[in-house]
From TrEMBL, chains A, B:
Belongs to the GST superfamily. Keywords: Transferase. This is glutathione transferase. It catalyses: RX + glutathione = an S-substituted glutathione + a halide anion + H(+). Transmembrane segments: none annotated. The keyword Transferase applies. Its EC number is 2.5.1.18. It comes from the Eukaryota. Residues 6-85 form the GST N-terminal domain. Residues 90-213 form the GST C-terminal domain.
């Protein structure tokens, strides 16, 4: 648990999968923090001051020290509060956790977001194919483990909250099949197990307003088609 | 030093800045390894087996355990061989090192490579501007330190070998100004200090064949303009 001397703030936005990663990590560690919702259409002075490089959420400020980039923050949380480890202790297993969480950001997030948001049909087909390929690697990697981290939620699970919560919402809004139980049975089972984990569950955003937000966003994108 | 029981192989390619990062990290630790030059136009069975996800170099194989992604490899090396630390021991400083090395991959490598390789003039202007903005952040971050890591070469320095060695070569071939001592005096001084560090120096590729390779590559790209 964070001692009373610690001052921890999270600048976030309700619909962001990257902010959700940080919330889950804090909760796994039992760290209390002050949450500040940012209006990304009108960014605060605080956000611009603490993340002048990317001007994005999440940002944490721990005893006046700011830090950005969700996976960097999750590792920082793991190294600062030692209880309930998020990364394995073995250097090779740690490296694999970093490899696969980076893989999710590099190969799943971009391709799946483009698949649901591009107005170009050929581009969409290409991105759907790339999403399938990337998810297949994760399906294979999961093997018969409960979580990517084994018996406990770890770095790759936290990174993959985007796959468990956001992709199903996007595909429902857009009427596309990206991540289904038929195509990725192990990954689908993992997603159900993960979303029902008590700490994950209480740190997911409320589905309805986030769904409505993205529905509106996609409608505005496709209205211009 | 690696013990004689350790079996370490690096699959690389002579002109790759990402492979060069791993070579520097191994040398800083005094790890002996077997180097295998890959022909990227005709990838080996070994490369496809050990890095089925990205099919790229560098890949290391340590006692039969394969690992890809240069920054993940460098952290693995740092955690496996504890002498001559590459990352700081303080969690916040470690996080900043990860933040800035990721920044180099996300904001410098892509923009500067596009700046020298795109045939579209508007695209080039945009990428030159983005490269300038990214390098300015690093210029500011360097402050009056000898290396990004302080008195010793660290993770960010190793990541930035691309800036010290590759960008000057690219801009000379293409006749563009991307990274000059006038515009980025601190970063330029850093690059000279870094390139002359004995361990860095002996692990850079020979400039002439790499220069010739990229000159030929750019000529083939621009011949089609």
């Amino acid at each position: 648990m964070a001692s009373s001397q610690e001052d921890v703030t999270l600048l976030g936005a309700i619909g962001s999968p990257f902010v959700c990663r940080v919330k889950i990590a804090f909760k796994l560690k039992g760290v209390e923090y002050k949450y500040v919702e940012e209006n990304l259409a009108n960014k605060s002075e605080q956000l611009l001051k603490y993340n002048p490089v990317h001007k994005k959420v999440p940002v944490i400020v721990h005893n006046d020290k700011p830090l950005a980039e969700s996976l960097v923050i999750v590792e920082y949380i793991d190294e600062t509060w030692k209880n309930n480890p998020i990364l394995p202790s073995d250097p090779y297993q740690r490296a694999l956790a970093r490899f696969w969480s980076k893989f999710i950001d590099d190969k799943v997030v971009g391709a799946s977001w483009s698949a649901v948001s591009t107005i170009d049909e050929k581009e969409r087909e290409k991105n759907v194919k790339e999403t399938f390929e990337a998810l297949q690697f994760l399906e294979n990697e999961l093997k018969d483990k409960k979580f990517f981290g084994g018996e406990e939620v770890g770095l790759v699970d936290i990174a993959a909250v985007y796959i468990a919560f956001w992709i199903p919402m996007f595909q429902e809004i857009r009427g596309l099949d990206l991540f289904t139980s038929e195509k990725f049975p192990k990954l689908y089972n993992w997603s159900q197990e993960f979303l029902n984990h008590p700490i994950v569950k209480e740190n997911l955003p409320p589905r309805e307003p986030v769904f409505a937000f993205f529905k509106g966003l996609f409608e505005s994108i496709f209205a211009s088609k």
